[in-house]
Amino acid sequence: MSLFRNIVFTAVIAGLLSGLLLTVMQHFSTVPLILQAETYENAGGAEAGHSHNHEAAPAGGVAPPAAAEHSHDEEAWAPADGFERLIYTAAADILSAIGFGLVLIAASEALGGFKGWRGGLMFGIAGFLTVSLAPGLGLPPELPGMPAAELGPRQIWWISTAICTALGLGLLAYTRSVVFAVLAIVLLVAPHLVGAPLPPTHETAVPLELHARFVNAVYVTNLVFWAVLGALIAVVREKFRAGEDVAVRPSAGLASR
Q1: Do the beta carbons of residue 171 and residue 180 sit within 8 Å?
Q2: SS (H, E, C) 16-82
Q3: What is the 8-class DSSP label of residue 145?
Q4: Please, what sign has the CA dihedral across residues 157, 11, 13, 133?
Q5: C-alpha 172, offset from chain centre
Q6: What phi, psi does 116 have (nearest 5°)?
Q7: Alpha helices, DSSP H, located in the chain
Q8: 166: CB partners within 8 A, 6+ apart
Q9: What pLDDT was estimated at residue 154?
Q10: d(CA 51, CA 102)
Q11: Is 1 helix (H, G, I), strand (E, B) or coil?
């Protein structure tokens, strides 16, 4: 039970700190670009006679594609700009970070542990490649007002790409067989050969330059987020592991008596 508790505490501590860091980075990088894109979206919606309501999602794009719903209800709820929006973004970032942290810990424990903060950093970078970069090659981060394919196919492709990337990286890192190396390359390339679902049109009022800046900002903030998350988890996990070892030694001594 103490092992499970320590794993959860590790994910919560590292997720809280890295999630807050992500929120701060987003506040100065991606959020201003989102607000700027919303002006184009609102202008387009006013001309079309309806509004677009995007489901709340982490602004950094660390989650699978969310639905971009078309709503004719002008009073559909959305967090107000400013403090309220910041609080919801921080909550989403922290919860996502804790969940990703639990996944990293589970993967590391199954593969022999982090072995220091450098090992945690490598796991974090692998998480960035799996969750952000690889799916983003086919489904780049989107700004409000940009066209998108249907939600179902996009999520299926996103999840499949993340799974294939994780398996491919794992085979490359933990096996020495040529056969497994070839299989890893096939897993890494296959989703992109199949291709991500495409929107029915690429027409958008959002300037291309604005979208390019947003994609770059998302990748940079997510790389820093994943690196910090992995390193923090490794450090905190080692602290708890040292406590577990100290607790086990006295118990073993009493049992020997």
Answers
A1: yes
A2: HHHHHHHHHHHHHCHHHHHHHHHHHHHHHHHHHCCEEEECCCCCCCCCCCCCEEEECCCCCCCCCCC
A3: T
A4: negative
A5: 22
A6: 100, 170
A7: 2-28, 30-48, 83-110, 117-128, 134-138, 151-174, 178-194, 208-256
A8: 126, 130
A9: 96
A10: 38
A11: coil
Q: How many CB atoms lie within 10 A of CB 77?
A: 8
Closest CA to 71 of 92, 86, 50, 57: 50
Backbone angles phi, psi at 68, to 5 degrees: -105, 95
pLDDT in tens, the chain (257 residues): 588 898 999 999 999 999 999 999 999 999 999 999 988 877 765 544 444 444 444 544 555 655 444 444 445 567 777 788 899 999 999 999 999 999 999 999 898 888 899 999 999 999 999 999 999 999 999 999 899 999 999 999 999 999 999 999 999 999 999 999 999 999 999 999 999 999 988 889 999 999 999 999 999 999 999 999 999 999 999 988 776 655 555 554 545 55
Farthest-apart Cα atoms in the chain, separation = 83
Q: How far apart are CA 225 and CA 145, in angstroms?
A: 26
Say if residues 122 and 185 touch (Cβ distance below 8 Å). no
> Encoding tokens for residue 86?
């910041």
Q: Is 112 left (phi over 0), alpha (psi -120 to 50) or beta?
A: left
Give me 187's structure tokens.
């897993």
How many Å separate Cα 161 from the centre of its chain? 13
Given a contact cutoff of 8 angstroms between Cβ atoms, the answer to whether 122 and 169 are in contact is no
Q: How is residue 69 written in tokens? A: 């719903």
